[in-house]
């Protein structure tokens, strides 16, 4: 185990980044035992991946990274579905409207919102 190292910036704040670097250097100089060597070798790719994945959080871009991982794919998928829907309605409005009319016949409870599909189809067909 290494001793706790405290480093400070010129303005008096603790320099956590420099402390981490010195801690990692001290760990590298500590010689692992026979059984620990294989664990150390196999953990290197995991450590490298974790280092890259946590870089945005270290520099204050964690919210942006989480947005890219969780929100952006959903926006792209829903945007793609909307564009495909509009293009399909515009290309073949009669086929699309016939599909929804068949849907209403099979599912009478859906009548209260299918007027939106009919109006959208007529509006895009007129454009």
Residue runs with pLDDT of under 50 for 5 or more positions? none
Radius of gyration of CA atoms, rounded to a whole number: 29 Å
Q: Give the overall shape, derived from the CA principal axes.
A: elongated
Total number of strands = 0
Helix content bin: over 70%
Q: Which structural class best describes the helix and strand composition?
A: mainly alpha
Number of helices: 5
**First-to-last CA distance:** 73 Å
> Could you give a short account of the major beta sheet?
none
Order of helices and strands: HHHHH
Strand residue content: under 5%
Mean pLDDT: 83
Keywords: Membrane, Transmembrane, Transmembrane helix
Transmembrane segments: 37-59, 65-87
Annotate the secondary structure layout.
Blueprint: H1 16-29, H2 34-58, H3 62-91, H4 93-106, H5 111-126
Helix pairs in contact: 2-3, 3-4, 3-5, 4-5
What labels would you give this structure?
127 residues, 5 helices, mainly alpha, single chain
What would you say this structure looks like, in words?
The protein has 127 residues and is mainly α. The protein contains five helices and no strands. It has a domain at 92-126. Helix 2 crosses helix 3 (62-91) and helix 4 runs antiparallel to helix 5 (111-126). The chain is elongated and about 75 Å long. Keywords: Membrane, Transmembrane, Transmembrane helix.
């Amino acid at each position: 185990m290494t001793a706790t190292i405290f480093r400070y910036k010129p303005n008096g704040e603790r320099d956590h980044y420099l402390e981490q670097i010195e801690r990692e250097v001290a760990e590298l100089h500590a010689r692992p035992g026979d059984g620990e060597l294989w664990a150390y070798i196999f953990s290197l790719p995991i450590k490298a991946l974790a280092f890259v994945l946590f870089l945005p959080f270290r520099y204050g871009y964690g919210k942006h990274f989480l947005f890219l991982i969780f929100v952006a794919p959903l926006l792209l998928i829903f945007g793609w579905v909307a564009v495909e829907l509009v293009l399909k309605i515009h290309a073949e409005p009669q086929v699309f409207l016939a599909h929804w009319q068949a849907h209403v016949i099979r599912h009478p409870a859906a009548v209260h919102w299918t007027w939106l599909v009919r109006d959208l189809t007529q509006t895009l067909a007129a454009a």
